[in-house]
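sorry to bug you again but im stuck and you know this stuff better than me. what follows is a protein written twice so to speak, once as letters and once as structure tokens for the fold. id like you to explain what the token line says about the fold, in plain words if possible. anything you notice is useful, everything is just below.
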Amino acid sequence: MTTTATPTRVIYDTDPGVDDAIALYFALAHPAIDVVGITTTFGNVSVEQAAANALYLAALAGYAHIPVTKGVAAPLAKHAEPPPAFIHGADGLGNLPSRQATSNQLDTRSSAQFIVDMARANPGNITLVAVGPLGNVSLALQLEPQLPMLLRDVVIMGGTVLEPGNVSPVAEANIWNDPLAADHVFAAGFQLTMVGLDVTHKVVTELALFDAIASHQQHPATDTLRHAVAFYADFYSGLHDTIQNKGCFAHDLLAFVYVVAPELFGVDSGVIRVAVDGHANGQTMMNRRAHSNYPQAGWADGRVPTQVCMRVDAQACLALFESTLMDSAWLQPARTHR
């Protein structure tokens, strides 16, 4: 596990979503991560529901001071699809039977403007972790073309190179939801890492683990997480051969595991482009032969390669997640965020 004296300052761009909630609580709990903002987008739920969920999850765990913004509501170009209520629940958190009252309110800025403002104010010191469709990041690029130089780096949960897609034979859901935005982001020149299905389909978080965390912590935040995961795990039950016991792929969690423990991943490097229409809509195509002189434009013209996670130590990731969430310190009065 990588630790640093100064935590990595992170903006979390998200569409919560059950796995988004898992990732958020890992990020809040880990001492090497300082969540300085949560920006929301459509995807697993509408952007309005995503913003409401981010506010609720943060406040429930004692982090109501973290700014939360509302971002893009639809893809840049393609037709918007209905949120997958059968996967995450109509409310994105497994259809919670009730919610405690919270008082935190949205930051009035758009998600894109918040990203730009934070990057300008903290050049080279912000990591953007984006785990939903990439419209907020694409719009931020339009507002500030120098964003790739202002952000420290970007970690994306999305895409796939060799693993079959989860919304088509070749496409992962986040990229498929807004392929034009994704292609814009991949081509922009960020120091960018893609944590996609090639690794997330190798790491299964079992419901029994969330039972144990909720029992140990005795806190509304971990009770809420356990409820949401139970709904999510029902969807995954029987869907994949790799899920032997009731559980789920905690896709978005691995983006934050990469931030604190990149040594747990095997990474390949290559230019990524995204198919923006047709049957391959949302496919993340990686140039795995860097010295090939492909005749099409967009492959050999000096583009910055993406670091793509292709291998993962699944057991070490799960152990890190368990030890982090089992530490009760993160659910005490909120830490001072820098």
Summary: Residues 17 and 92 are 5 Å apart (CA to CA). The chain has one domain: 8-331.
